[in-house]
Amino acid sequence: MILVNFTNGIDVPFFQPIDRASTDDSLSFVTRATTDGADIFEAISAALSITTGAYWAGVTRLPRNAQQITVLAMWEDDHFCDCFHYDLEHTPCEIVTQSQQLCHYVNVQEDFPEDEALIQMGVKEYAGQVYRDFQGNVLGHLFMLNKKPCSNFVHVEQIMQQLVAFLEVEIRMQSSNIA
Hints:
single chain; seven-stranded antiparallel sheet
C-alpha cells in the first residue's frame, strides 16, 4: 500500500502494488481521492505515476496560442512537486499538444537533444496525451517521464487514455455546473 499525501493535507491510500495496478485501480483511487476533497489534477498525477511505475507524472494547462505551459500538478517518486511553467519549444510536450494524440518516446533525450531538462533529470522515456474541453479545444496534457523504459507500454497507454477520459468528464461536469 502507498499512502498519498495531498498538498491540502488529505491522505489517501493506494492499495494495489504497482506491478498489479490496473486502469480500474487508478480510476478508483482518483474517485476516492477527489471525493475526499483532493485536487483532481494531483489525484490524476499520483494515479498515473503509481499505476505505471513512472518516476514523474503530471497534468498541464496550455493557454491558447501560448508558447509556455503550466504544470498544474506533478508527482515525483513519492511526493508532489511545486507547480511551475516552462517553454514548449523543442520539447516532447510541444509535439503532443500539436499532434493532439498520444505520443511516446523511448529514447526521449536523443529525440529532443535541445530539451536540457530531460538530460539533467535523466529521463529516458516520455509519454503524453492531451485532454480537451467540451468544445474539443486542447486544455493541456497528461505526461509521464521515466528513468528507464517501461516493460509494458500498452498498460501505460490504457491508463493514460482512461485518466484523460475521466479528467475530460470531470471538466465537462464542472463547466455545466458553472453555466
